Amino acid sequence: MKSTPVLPLHAAFLVVAPIVPLFAQQTGTVSGTVVVTESGAPLAGASVVIVGTARSVLTNEKGQYHLSVPAGAHSVRARLIGYDAAEQRVVVPAGQTVSVDFKLTATPLSLNEIVVVGARTSRTAVETPVPVDVITAQEVIETGHTEVNQILATLAPSFNASHQTIADGSDAIAGVINIVLKKQTERLEASSTVGTTPGGTAFGDITDKHDGDQVKADANYGFAIGDRGFFNVTAEYLDRGATNRASTWSGPIFVRPVPGTPAAYTDSLRTIDDDSLATLGLTRAPFTMKVGQAEATFGSAFFNAMVPLSENAEFYTFGGFSSRDGRAGAFYRLPDQESQVARQIFPYGMLPYINTGITDRSFSAGVRGASRGWDVDFSLTHGRNDFQFIIDNTVNASLGAASPTAFDAGRLAFAHTTGNLDLVRPLAVGGLKSVSFVTGAEFRLENYRIETGDAASWQLGNGGTRAGIDYDTTSAGGAKQPGSQGFPGFQPANEIDRSRTSLGVYAGFESQLTHRLLIDAGGRYESYSDFGNRINGKLAGRYEIVPNVAARAAVSTGFRAPSLQQLWFNNISTQFVFVSGALTPQNVLTSNNQSRVTKAFGIPDLTEETSVNLSAGITARPRPNLSLTADVYRITIDGRIVITSQFSASDTVVRRILAPFQSQGVTTAQFFTNSIDTRTTGVDLVAAYARGLGGGTLALTGSATFTKTEVLRVNVPQSMADTFRTNLTTIRNRILNPEDRNRLEDALPRSKGSVAARYGLGRFAGLARASYYGDIEYHHPTDPTLDEHFGAKTLLDLDLSYEVRRGLRVAIGGNNIFNTYPDPQVKANNISFGRFVYSRRVTQFGMNGGFYYARVLLSL
Questions:
Q1: Exposure of 394 in the CB half-sphere (CA atoms within 13 A)
Q2: Which residues pair with 768 in a beta bridge?
Q3: pLDDT in tens, 447-489
Q4: Largest CA distance in the chain
Q5: What is the per-residue pLDDT across 646-695, written as a single tens digit (0 to 9) for each?
Q6: What is the pTM of this model?
Q7: CB-based burial of residue 73 (10 Å sphere; 0-12 exposed, 13-18 middle, 19+ buried)?
Q8: For residue 275, which phi and psi values (nearest 5 degrees)?
Q9: What SS3 class is residue 619?
Q10: Where are the alpha helices (DSSP H) in 117-265?
Q11: DSSP code of 201?
Q12: Among 800, 784, 807, which Cα is nearest to 853's?
């Protein structure tokens, strides 16, 4: 097996070491203290930045800072959340130290967060020319959520998330999530959260019927390295129980032929099943599918460190390891589904479980500092993700009584190694407040692998061709289904090991032309080894119309290369799809983009997605304790990569192409393709206000997003039109049927908003948040009479905490405290005999109901 090239750590030092002498140059130093205006107390952790550059430092526990800068004139700014910023102009002679002290005045509103997304020079969120959401550690804690995706869905207006263990989708073509790592030293912080849900019932039944129990614990500690260095480490553990929101199975169990729809399951047939259950001493409950949040156990450890190399340079490194084990139920295999069960092993059928083992590891190291007027940052990063599938409580039905009940179904693996060089140079341009030239480059190596599973997890019987001898058959004489039920394993034909490289170079200017006008302009060139080159650009600006009121706008082009996964993923999976109105198991072939099967369907080579992004908005801070932003945006994506809807072997052309896969039970096929063009338009509104009240501090925040995504075109390649020789409307519907179009257009709320109030008084703090989720729709793939509409809902969260003594805070709270659920489905075929009380095809806010928790935080 080919291994992924990785640059060893010692090699990183060999690369970094020669760079260090470059930072030894004639510079000056700015040093001083940052204190509270009212009391003179030192402020630890305040950010001191050189305006228009990437140079910054945090004050130590005594409020002191020490920052090396090029000789010349500079604006120095000090900020800390909860205090008004202060700025001073200073001239720093070469080889000398200039003292600059700051006094910051406390303010109840935290508007001074420094952001490092959207700019390579230091700015606050209201100073950037594009919208940026800044989420503080306190806000994260007080959501009560235990997972990052749920935290972001609560706090970021445009972010949506689900509790799926296995999910697919395309990376965003625009947008970045930046996680700022802790740098604290000489302090231990630990917390633990326990919580549960009412189990799909009323809150009063939580003690008897709870599910989704969660236990989370984490700890963080840091220690100093010399005067400026640090090493910080965090460990976290989460045990999350499963939830089940399916109702008791009400469909056929033993009767044959199997009635596929609720209408076909008559009272007389139901009576036959009920009598059989009574004879066997069974109930319908054991035949119920589990639908809801998957069970998961998660553990991780991360570190962040910095060591000074000289007055002008520092070595930094960060990385971590995480492991996540998930367990999710598949569709129940009923005893009347003869081709999918081995009744010698499971007489009454079985509920297969898909167990996922996900491991992530990453490591970064770099050096940054100042050299000959440049801010320099050089780094190397390696990361790897492994996704292991173990299927148990199931069978390979074609093996009959000889079948195992647990299978190793194979592994997916992805690794990447990147090298980055980022340069920023402040320019002295007469008449302009500040101009910085930014440039850099990135080299990236990616590798994607699919590893085969056990032979029993994918093959028909023992691999022979003799019916009833080498593989088991049904009473009608047909072959039983091959592979592990629930998730057939990856076959030797699926196994791949593919790599590619890419090189990117960028350059631009970030400039504060005057006190009122800011302009950013830049471009980026990318070259990929497997599909070609691309150039993109960006222009953004911000103009202060009157003091504290500014307009901002941006235009950019973008692209996203097809991922190695989209290019090379291939397998045979079991999917339950609608056939004649009934959910029916189908073995679906997903072939990679270069396979002969894909080309026989007329699917061309994947190319990059391209986009044009426009945004404009207003930011206002009419008072020191009030902030308002409003932004509109429009994103068009051409050649968007999607996985097609399924091409069924009921079509003669499809049946001919899929004939070689008949022995593996394949009846449909799907592919990744650049099929569609989309347009997304939206408005984001954010407001924040704070004031003193009754001896405490009241902070109010509100946000709302209104967005609409439209599929503008479904593009039919000429080669596909030539293959099928039917009308283009039919082909377009096969590429993107109404259900798959629905996922893009109507399956997420087009409107979403929240209003939160936080009050702190002495040792007490309380947070209340109301979150609004707009209505959504479900569109059936073939029958419009089965479309559904789900109304808007408002959820209320509450978090109450009290500092028992210094360093010890306890809290209780709840997310969705009124235990609100989405509207249930009303169409019997969609409910599928009780499997899906709530739709599995849309994402509004989840189906768990309320989550109620207690939390302890310790700081020593």
A1: 33
A2: 757, 798
A3: 999 999 999 999 999 999 999 999 999 999 999 999 999 999 9
A4: 96
A5: 999 989 999 999 999 988 889 999 999 999 999 999 999 999 999 989 98
A6: 0.87
A7: exposed
A8: -65, -40
A9: strand
A10: 137-142, 148-155, 206-209
A11: S
A12: 800
